[in-house]
Amino acid sequence: MASHPALLSWPADPRDEYGLALWTAPAIEAATSGHASADFEVGGIAFDGREVHEGDLFVALEGEQADGHAYLDQASSRTRFGVFEMGMNHPGELAELTRLVRPHVAIVTTIAPAHIGFFKDEAAIADAKSEIFEGLVPGGTAILPADSPHFTRLRAKASRHAAHVVSFGRSPHAQVRLLDTIRSHNGGTLVTADLGDRRICFTVGMPGEHWVANALAVIAAARAVGADLGATGLALAEMEGLAGRGARHAVPAKGGDGSGKALLIDESYNANPASMAVTIDELGKTEARRRIAVLGAMKELGDQEARYHAELAGPLSEARIDRAVLVGEEMRGLTEALGKSAGDALGKRIDVAHVANAAEALALLEGEGLHGGDAVLVKGSNSVGLGAVVRALTAKE
What we know:
The structure is a single chain. The chain is α/β, with parallel strands linked by helices. Among the domains are: 12-80, Udp-n-acetylmuramoylalanyl-d-glutamate--2,6- Diaminopimelate Ligase, Chain: A, domain 1, CATH 3.40.1390; 247-393, Protein-Tyrosine Phosphatase, Chain A, CATH 3.90.190. The protein has 13 helices and 16 strands. The protein has a six-stranded mixed β-sheet with strand order 5-6-7-8-9-10, with helices on both faces. Helix 6 runs antiparallel to helix 7. The chain is globular and about 60 Å long. The two termini are 34 Å apart.
């Protein structure tokens, strides 16, 4: 079958003659002040041993004990496009990182009470996130979430540093505006969006409304750099979850519907009140014999910690969760709230277990066993260690 010519078109660039190598041994030596044992080229970089592919450079980091951002300004000149995720939990951190990267396009995906223990309120988080615009190169583009209650605040900051400000979302004023979504048979979403001068339809492979919002931001960024929107749509359709960030596994299970498999949704890398709510909602929309939520504590929430955890009782009830395994001392408030809950519309209450740590959660799950047709969400702050639960359950995948 012939390929569509529009998807193959790409502006010619003299750097194409370099091939697919991202880094060479001499470049890595210069960047790290190290010594290469052999001559080689790499086409990708991985920091997680589970995500290393042939041709990748594996970089062993010590996590919180090392600062990998120190090498961002040494990025290879052979790279056509680079995508850098910048995180922060204190004011001033993004201001420093963005000046190292000097982006042509800077995106704020959402504002949520993540790390709010280090901030006065969500408005202060919005201010800290908007620091990313300070490093934009002249002529750069800022991309903002139009549906955020902090949109006006973000736009004011972006306008001081960006030549172009583009918004995405459902709001009527969004330049990349969501018109319609239809859930596809494989759990993804068919999206229709208005770009002002055209309308486009594409599929987002990952399930969930939060992935639709992220996809709109991707479309906005692709258009800002002149990328092929057709190719961008195909990439979004083929997108799969990463370890700890939405990866889905079919794990062995006995009994139940007789399928021999249970669905495991791995969201173990991070958690905040907003991301917990949307992933619990997605679990509720997943066809399953039983819906099981294994939820770890959310860290860095400050003096509102108890309230944020207890408020997850609402999303869990609305999603018709059958079994909740709550991990960590911070989850005590949610355990109590669910114990007092009247249950769903039919009066059915969630079966709740509260354990101290990830090891106890795994022992509980293995003792009870997963049944064919179950859907299991595993989500919590990374420091809770629920990634170990996922690795144990998927070991025989």
